[in-house]
Design brief:
Elements lengths: L1 H18 L16 H14 L7 H11 L1 H4 L8 H8 L5 H12 L2 H9 L2 E3 L5 E4 L2 H50 L2
Antiparallel strand pairs: 1-2
Helix pairs in contact: 3-6, 7-8
């Protein structure tokens, strides 16, 4: 699976430069007497043959939020939602889809929803299976870890700012003492 994806990626990058410099007929690059109709027909066929580059995970997530109520409303997703996505969007890149799902399910909003959820939802927002206590507990633990990390980061920032202020005051005192005793 990865070998094919890598080969497709190589094919996409190899064909991309030939698609980019498309010039209109009679433009600056039209120095030869070749008929422009043949060149434009070949160039028009090339984009149709090459698959479109996969969107970024964030762009895909935006698209999913736009198309599906479960993503838009940040509902707890059904187990196997990736299979539903692949069924509805057959050309979807699995790696990008997994990254987008990771971003979505790792978000604070989603974790908060999971912490209190009773039911999971499919892509259309239809209720499905029940959320287990284990999954609710996992979401709660993830939130606690995030809050703890954020509190530690803020504490470190405050300590660094306090140390910097103490050094500034110390330097001012030293400068004042040096000024006082250098006069005599």
């Amino acid at each position: 699976m990865n070998t094919t994806t890598a080969a497709e990626t190589v094919d996409n990058t190899a064909s991309a430069p030939s698609e980019s410099p498309v010039m209109p007929a009679g433009g600056a690059g039209a120095a030869s007497n070749e008929p422009p109709a043949e060149a434009s027909a070949t160039e028009a066929a090339a984009p149709a043959a090459a698959p479109a580059p996969a969107p970024s995970a964030r762009a895909l997530l935006k698209q999913l939020q736009h198309e599906f109520p479960a993503f838009r409303d940040c509902l707890p997703l059904a187990i196997g939602i990736d299979k539903q996505l692949l069924q509805r969007m057959p050309g979807l890149d699995r790696k990008t889809m997994r990254a987008a799902l990771g971003i979505h399910t790792g978000s604070m909003r989603y974790l908060r929803a999971m912490e209190k959820a009773k039911v999971r939802y499919d892509l259309d927002g239809t209720p499905g299976a029940e959320v287990t206590d284990t999954h609710r507990l996992h979401a709660k633990e993830q939130l606690q870890q995030r809050f703890k990390k954020e509190a530690e980061r803020k504490k470190a920032e405050r300590e660094a700012a306090a140390a910097e202020e103490a050094n500034r005051q110390r330097q001012e005192k030293l400068n004042a003492l040096a000024a006082k005793f250098s006069r005599n």
